[in-house]
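Form 12-C: Joint structure prediction
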Amino acid sequence: MQPGGRPGAEAIRLKGWFRAHRYLILRRLSQVSILALFLAGPWFGVWIVKGNLASSLTLEVLPLSDPLLLLQVFATGHVPESAALIGGVIVLVFYLIVGGRVYCGWVCPVNPVTDAAEWLRGALNIKAGAHFSNQTRNWLLGATLVVAAVSGSLAWELVNPVSMVYRGLVFGMGLAWGLLAAVFLLDLFVGRRVWCGHLCPVGAFYGLVGEAALLRVGAVRRERCDDCLDCFAVCPEHQVIRPALKGADKGLGPVILSGHCTNCGRCIDVCGRDVFAFTTRFSNNNRQAVSGDNHT
Amino acid sequence: MPGSEKGSRGFDPARRRLLTGTLRTAVGVGLVAMTLGVYQRQARALPATALRPPGASVDEALFQGACIRCGLCVRDCPYDTLKLAQLGDEVALGTPFFEARDIPCEMCDDIPCVKACPTGALDPALTEIDQARMGLAVVVDQEACIAFQGLRCEVCFNVCPVRGKAITLNRQHNPRSGKHALFLPVVHSRDCTGCGKCETACILEEAAIKVFPIALAKGMLGQHYRLGWEQKAQAGEALVTPDLPHQYNLPEGMRYEHGGRGLIFGEPAMPPSLPPPAAPGLPDSPFPSNPLETLNSKGGL
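Section 2 - Result
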């Protein structure tokens, strides 16, 4: 990054504006079109998808259900009907293929909000921030299941901003705007990426799914890296980049294997030297063998 | 341990940081979880006007554990009866409910809301809508209900989808006019589905008949309680010492027929249709003629 320049400036100069924003545009398109599918029914009477992200029915045949919600239902002691179970398995398999936290980057309605907070944080040059361990989300994930088991009801769903916003958009917001504003302010003033990167149990769950997922971002041409740090600046989970980008000396492969990579592809956009590209988890082994020759 | 500075009292600062960090997170999350637990307990209190869709468990906690708040029941309700609770509503966030005075349940034969439910929070075993128990109608205000004023209304009786069973009209003498009848609505929990049509239709400014969640509307006899006549019918005979036939001790020439003609003058004291007075050898009356005997008897009064 040039001193004082915004991340991605070099990429725009070298690749052009469109190619330097390709995945960002695709991601926003994905978020908007999924929401549009859900809203087409209640707003225009075109019923392609019914329900919300908790559980939906597409074209009257395809059930989709949130696996984390089903896990909580199981924790309460209720065994869901087969429609929900089939829907949950389909969703789980989908994210095992495309990457667990693809949900966070490409589907979740809170993402544009926290992205906006992050952008404003940069624009206003807000540096200060409380520190949360990024393990907090895993603790919270555990807590939601424990509370469900102890209380016998889906307590987390009373306050979950992720499901609340989508349900709100499709069925009526009530005071949910307030909670969304709270998440925005949290990410703006309390700390960088506090909600999505540190607290959200939904993200934590999809992070665990992502540990085993197939589609990956890899620093496939990492030898070209000129240490401009643009990728670190834009990455919502920047701790996931280092092992892949700088791990050649330690015998680590170039593929980002952390479950917390959201596959947002923003690093691919902002890299002027095309270091990053989408690949699969299996392409890591070959590279590892090559780059790991001098070690062990 | 290489690379770690030991504190002056033998503490390992890195280990310490890790422990305090973990503890901090654990305590924070624990507090959040506890607050959530308390909040969800309050969220279990269903307001009196909120009714759950057909097939929902009467136990609110069970329902809230099974419902994933997807709104598919709301979408498949053809009458827009159901809605999802929004943040700020008294009903647990995102769960489906309806308010009877607003839009009642039309009791569709195919029960589309139950069919739409992916988790079984609306019990798929419910296939007869007449078996649904969404709530229970209660005539809450007899002072306001015009039937109790002796006026003919019977709207609740007539709109009831389980007509003549869930609500019946109890005919009574009208003491105000002395010559008319009161037709009083009486709800029977055996047949009332809690659809709420009576509450919607009630002609008053504020309905005198309201549908409440079962837990609010229904009383329950103590488990130990036995009704003598039911036990007697079950066993085929009285399980305790049979009562002596009642003696009215009326003046000469009169007698009393309970549940029949009442006080009767100038007929034989004991017509053959009445059972003979008790067993032979027992006194005519169970009460001694001398009051002192009662006072002095064992156990006294």
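Section 3 - Comments
Residues 166 and 190 of chain B are 7 Å apart (CA to CA). The mean pLDDT of chain B is 84.
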